[in-house]
């Protein structure tokens, strides 16, 4: 049985995933080199998305992090 903290974490995670599904279109527009399937699999995890952006666009990790942070700030 999950404790309260685990239930909270699961709820927050589900909420992020739900919001992310709505943001996939905007992310696809921002990073057209990423496929919709890849974006869906990211499930709103910033670190995973940062890695994909860095890899596809062959940019520094710091630049990818800035892009991802900006995207999430604009698409709350």
UniProtKB/TrEMBL annotation:
Pfam families: CsbD
Domain CsbD-like as annotated: residue spans: 14-66
Family the UniProt entry places it in: Belongs to the UPF0337 (CsbD) family.
Name this protein carries in UniProt: CsbD-like domain-containing protein
